[in-house]
Design a protein that fits this description.
Length: 297
């Protein structure tokens, strides 16, 4: 058996088309979604991410601006910039590209962002809202994982989900989203005993670890769905996920590739978060609740 390959690129494209349509509706009502990306320093990976975000936001019809600051910026200056953006009513989404250069306190900067404009979903207020099942803005990569399942007709309710990795960026919020969608969730991490035994029980395996091909084919229950968040660059330049794709392909029912799986979804969900924030600022809700069903509705 060979698994169905879940084409994240195609799914992201259709999310972006939906976003562009909602953005055009909002613009026609007088609210053009506005995204500001703050980029501090010269980190080459961040430069590429920011360029891609800018391009995608422009294509969606947003007003988009990148504010570039030198790594020498002080914490106070950066906080003042965030406060200025919080007060600017034409800005609906603020994204401070992480990691920040040494000497800057990323946590304090994230806390300074107005939670209603926190399109990365990292502000403690939004973290709490996700846990409480309240309306908020939630992290883009885990939202992308859920969206891939939803748009591929893969049910979550009542299913056993294993989430490998417990970061605040991916694993933890993903587990909360799955719980809100009535999955039975097991959270795994570096201290989990007999990880393969846990994943073998799961109908859905989400790998967000950062270890190349950690999850082997025989860790997968035949027919399970495998969503691979990992992005790992090997010594020979190849990009691989946290799942041994070739092996898992033979066991899974459906699987995301790397690249071309979860990766393209992250920017698509960032745009989605921005249009949600803009719609709320305009007094309308432009999409179904981000965490639908169960207690998360
Ligand atoms: P973190 O390093 O923050 O977290 C990794 C998690 O994996 C930790 O919880 C850690 O456990 C766990 N872990 C590490 N080793 C093992 C192991 N041997 N067995 C089980 N669990 C283990 O990573 P992120 O969550 O930020 O990212 C994870 C991956 O996803 C990376 O490859 C990253 O590049 C990718 N990524 C992709 C994105 C995309 O757009 N597609 C966006 C964000 C990330 P513990 O807590 O015990 O240390």
């Amino acid at each position: 058996m060979s698994a169905r390959i879940l084409d994240g690129k195609a799914i992201a494209k259709s999310v972006r088309e939906d976003v562009a349509r909602r953005a055009a509706e909002l613009t026609a009502r007088g609210t053009r979604p506005g995204l500001v990306v703050v980029l501090v320093g010269e980190d080459p990976a961040s430069q590429v991410y920011v360029k891609n975000k800018d391009k995608a936001a422009l294509e969606a019809g947003f007003s988009v601006r990148t504010v570039r600051k030198s790594a020498a910026i002080s914490q106070a200056e950066l906080l003042a910039l965030v406060r200025e953006l919080n007060a600017d009513t034409s800005v609906h989404g603020i994204l401070v590209q992480l990691p920040l250069p040494k000497g800057l306190d990323a946590s304090a900067v994230v806390r300074a962002i107005d939670p209603a404009k926190d399109v990365d979903g990292l502000h403690p207020d939004n973290v709490a809202r996700l846990a409480l099942g309240d309306r908020g803005l939630f992290p883009c990569t885990p939202r992308g994982c859920i969206e891939i399942c939803d748009r591929s007709g893969i049910p979550l309710a009542g299913k056993r989900a294993a989430v490998v990795g417990r970061s605040m960026l991916v694993g933890k919020p993903l587990a909360l989203m799955l719980l809100a969608r009535d999955a039975t969730v097991t959270m795994c991490h570096s201290r989990t005993t007999d990880l393969p035994a846990v994943t073998r029980e799961a109908d859905l395996v989400f790998a967000a670890v950062g270890r190349p091909e950690l999850v082997r084919g025989d860790w997968i229950r035949p027919g399970a769905t495998v969503i691979d968040v990992g992005i790992n660059r090997l010594g020979d330049g190849r990009l691989v996920g946290d799942v041994a794709f070739g092996e898992a392909l033979e066991r899974a029912g459906a699987i995301t590739p790397v690249p071309g799986g979860v990766g393209p979804m992250t920017i698509a969900m960032l745009l989605d978060n921005t249009v949600i924030a803009a719609a709320r600022a305009a007094g309308v809700e432009s999409s179904p609740p981000v965490v639908a069903a169960g207690k998360g509705a």
